[in-house]
Structures are given as C-alpha cells and as structure tokens.
Amino acid sequence: MKRTLLVGSAVAVGVIAGAGFLFLRGSKDPVKWRTAQVDQGSITQRITATGTLNALIQVPVGTQVSGVVVSLTADFNSLVKKGQVIGTIDPTPWLTQLKDAEAGLQRATDTMNNAQAVYQRNLALWQAKLLSQNDLDTFELNLKVAKGNVESAKATLQTAKTNLGYCTIKAPVDGVVVNRLVDVGQTVAASFSTPNVFTIAQDLSRMKVSAAIDEADIGQVRVGQRAFFTVDSYPDKQFKGVVSEVQLNPTITNNVVTYNVIMEVANEPRAAYAPQAEPPAGSGPAAMAGRPGGGRPAGGSPASGRPEGNHPAGSRPAGVRTEGGRTANPAQGQAGSLEYTTARYMPPGSPVYKGDLALFPGMTANCTIITNRKENTLRVPSAALRFNPGAFVTLDRKPATAAPSPAGAPAVAAAATPAAAASPGAAAPGRGMAARFDDRLWVLEDGKPKAIPVKAGVSDGTFTEVTGDGVVPGLAVLTGVEDYKKALTGGASPLGGGMHH
Predict the structure, then answer these.
(1) Residue 124, Cβ neighbours under 10 Å: how many?
(2) Rg of the chain, C-alpha, whole Å
C-alpha cells in the first residue's frame, strides 16, 4: 500500500514538472510582433449612405374641380410645354353653373336699373317737397343694395368661369411626364385635397439625390462638399455631384434619427457607356417603305383612329413640320428627342422622351460624401490605434512618463495599460464627465512594448492621421502579432484585453 502511494506521488510530480517545463519553455518563446511605419500621405474622410434619384424640380399636376376625365393628351414620357393642354374634365356641370351665374347677373342688373329709375323719380319728388326725407332714404338704400347684388353676381360669374377653366388641365412647366395617375373615364374628387393627374419632371438633365444621413455623421456634412454615387444600372460608372442642401427637419424611425441631405448631379448621355438597343422589329428601311408620315401605318394611327392627313388646317401635330418635301425633326429638347408614338393617350406625332439620359427618377443611389481631406499628413494604419499588446506580454504597470500639465496644474502620471484609471497624458475627468482612454501607439523599446500618447485626426478607415511628441515619419509601431494563438498561449497575461480604443 505504501509502495503504491510512493509510485503515484512520483508520477504526479513528474507530470507537474513536465507541464511546468513546457509552460516555461513556451513563455520564453519571443512574441513576433507585426509592425508598420508612420508615413506621410493623403487621407480622405468619407460618409456613405443610400439615397433616391429624382428630377431637380418635379411638379405634381392636379385638378381643382371634381368630375369625370373625358380626355388625356399626354402620357408617360410625353414632352410637354408650359400651358399645353394635357387633359380635360367633363365640363357639363360647370357649364350649367356658368349659365346660372350669367342669369343671376342679368337679374341683379335689371333690379339695379329699376332701383336706379325709382330713385331718380322719387328724388325729383323730394326736390319738389312732395316726398319726405325718410322715404327718399329708403329708395336710396334699395339702390345701394341692388348695386351690391350686381357686384356679388359678377363675382359668382367669375368663379363659374374659373371653375370651367379648371376643367382644362394644362402643363404648368416645360418638362417630361414621368407619371400618369388617371385614365379616361375615371372620376376625380377635389373635395378635400387636390387629386394628382400627372407628375412632370421639369428638367431631367439636372437630377438630385435625397439621402438619409445618420445623426452621428450629419455634423460633418456641409453645403458644397463633393459627392459621388453609383447606381445598379451602371455599376462601373461613378457620377459626380455636390451637396446643395442639408435639411434641418429630422426623421425619426424606430428611435433612429436621420437628416435628409440633397445632392445635385448633372445627368449624362446614356449612349456614352450603355450599349445601344437594337431597333424594334419592322422599323427598318424595308418596313418603312409605303408608310407615309415617317413610319406610321398607312390609313391612320391606331392610337387615334383618325385617317392619315385628316388634320384641320393649322393643326398639324406639335413638333412635326415639312421642309423641302421632307419631315423635319426639331432640335433636341432639354431632356430628349422627338419620335412618333402609338401610346394610348398621345396624338400621333407627339414629342416623347426616348430615354437618352442615363439617370432615371426613382433609381437607388449608393452615395459617398467627401467630408474632409488632408494632404501630406502623418498617418498610421488604423489597426495600430486599436492594438493592445497587454494580451500577449506582461506590461509594466508603472507610469511611463509624467505628462506635461498646464501652468499651475499638478502633473498627471501616464498609465501604461488600459487597466489604469487614466491614459498617458490625460487628466482626471471633471464632475459629470465620462472617462475615456486617449489614443496611443505602441513601439518597441529594449524589446518591450511602450505606449506613446497621440492625438488621432481624420480617418478613412484604413489610415488615421496622428500627431504627438515623438511621432515622426519612419517610426515603427505595433499593429498585431504574427501568430495570434501561439502568442496568446505564451503571454504572461492570457486573460488580458486584446484590442482597445
């Protein structure tokens, strides 16, 4: 029994000795540090966001009267001019109101004329001392009331004329119809709000991007900053813009506060980097033969059902004229060119936008805003500011250096590890202030890591600007270790922190 205990004790001692030998041997293996050098270069600070493209000025066109839509003369992609008729509301009830207002004005006018004649007769009697002043005042009052009724009837007539005019929907601006919201035969009601009929983009050559910027980044955004964005349709093309507006109205969604930022961009020709679409079937020279009017089917247009050439004098479709026996195509418009169309509500020969510009309203834009840029500044890889060697070696917990303090203030010792209450060169936080660790870099001194307090500036995610005493170009700073697992098992403080910032 005693012998067995002795053998067991010897085995246990051997196991413990072997483990200790392996541990000491492993702990003596030097940590292979990964380093980088402080250099001088440029740093561009950016903010990324997702936005939506729209025309710079986009006007909803509505109707101010209720009724049935009886005609539309514009459709999707129509090029329209200011004042052009693009739709009509059934005017029957408004014509009735106009006639009633005209009759009311006639009645009021007749009443006023009669009151005027009565007043003049009684005025002569009053002058002959045959009528009392009280009676004359009554006739004068009746005349004034009659004149007021005439003015009221005129206002009613003007209102009826205005409402009748609202039955004709006109384009308020030059532009392209990007949306049509009604069909012929549909009833629109303008009782509580103005129902929209069309949406017109005034100029597709100028677009805007509306992006929601988080409240943490909005303080860096300024009007005039450069912006870049891409769209999914052209992933290899980068469009350039500029920040034109930073809206103060916040948007709160699920307790997340964002602010809307507007960026303006010039639209570009689509043909510059997009493959040209092949012409549709039946549009070649052979198919065009025998088609009068530049390719419309002989005998009329399927859109209107009207025989070809059956246009009243002076009513040739807008944008089409004959010069020297040929059909002329007018100059290219601000947002496209002209072509014949068979769209549902457009007369034949109406000008339409052919999609010659690259950016379309409603596209999703992946935006980048340049908020700051530094040239020829001291920089380090951002990983150097996040790295902490305390996870791999035992750090000296004695203060490294006494940070200089302002005149009249006691010097504050710089702590060498994150476990200290303050960072190198940092004073104790005042009442109500949260403590934070200052930025630092780690260098090797006699083979051991040493902290250097620095001040971090702008960052692009890869490099960060740094300033501080002892920070010079070429300074080697620690950014990590070569073999993380091996370095961690060999460290004297395997449970210590790894990264900090």
Answers:
(1) 10
(2) 42
Q: Which residues pair with 168 in a beta bridge?
A: 88
Q: Are 79 and 351 in contact (CB under 8 A)?
A: yes
Give the whole-angstrom CA distance, residue 82 versus residue 172.
Answer: 5
Residue 249 one-letter amino acid: N
Could you read off the pLDDT of 93-119 as tens digits, one per residue?
999 999 999 999 999 999 999 999 999
With 70 as the cut, is the pLDDT of residue 19 above it?
no
DSSP assignment, residue 112? H
Altogether, the residues listed in the chain come to a count of 501
- Structural domains in the chain plus CATH codes: 29-42+377-490 (no CATH), 91-166 (1.10.287.470)
Token code pair at residue 279: 């012409």
Q: Beta strands of 232-363 (E only): which ranges?
A: 234-253, 256-266, 321-323, 326-328
pTM: 0.62
Closest C-alpha among 111, 60, 116 to residue 86 = 60
Output 400 or 361, whichever has higher pLDDT. Answer: 361
Pair of tokens at residue 338: 């002209």
Q: Residue 175's closest CA among 208, 207, 200, 206?
A: 200
What is the three-class DSSP state of 12?
helix
Q: Is the dihedral of CA 7, 13, 16, 21 positive or negative?
A: negative
Are 345 and 184 within 8 A, CB to CB?
A: yes
d(CA 160, CA 406): 81
Q: Which of 352, 353, 392, 351 is nearest to 482 (CA)?
A: 392
Helix (H, G, I), strand (E, B) or coil at 65: coil
418: CB partners within 8 A, 6+ apart: 388, 390, 437, 497, 500
Cα–Cα distances (Å) from 171 to 73, 196, 197, 344, in that order, read 11, 12, 11, 18
Q: Cα separation of 215 and 237, whole Å?
A: 29
Whether the Cβ atoms of residue 379 and residue 463 lie closer than 8 Å to each other = yes
The residues pairing with 231 across neighbouring beta strands, listed in sequence order, are 234, 365
Instruction: Enter the tokens of residue 154.
Output: 């005129």
Helices 133-166 & 92-127 angle (0-180, nearest 10): 160
